Amino acid sequence: MFILSPGADPQTEVQKLVESHGPGSGKFKFLALGQGMGDQAKEFIESGAIRGWWVMLQNCHLLTSWLSTLEATIEGL
């Protein structure tokens, strides 16, 4: 989890980390959250757990009402 100041975007650095030490860029999925993106984020997480993807969710502060669903999804894995 990254807690960032406004304007910061670690996505490029995380992607480089995945490519150099992780499973490769084909297994790195990222999604910027916003209204209506909860179902897709849940799908990324569940698929990622099965397929071994790294999943990065950005802008979680924009979808705080969905965070309890995120918690339940992760606990259910």
Per-chain topology:
Elements: H1 11-21, E1 28-32, H2 38-51, E2 54-58, H3 67-75
Parallel strand pairs: 1-2
Helix pairs in contact: 2-3
- Biggest sheet character: 2 strands, parallel
Q: Structural class from helices and strands?
A: alpha+beta
| Tally of helical runs | 3
- Which percent band covers the strand fraction? 5-15%
Number of strands: 2
Order of helices and strands: HEHEH
Oligomer: single chain
| Strand order in space, largest sheet | 1-2
**Helix proportion range:** 40-55%
**What integer is the average pLDDT?**
88
Bulk shape? globular
Using only C-alpha atoms, the radius of gyration works out to 13 Å
Distance between the first and last residues' Cα: 18 Å
Query: Which parts are unreliable, with pLDDT below 50 for 5 consecutive residues or more?
Result: none
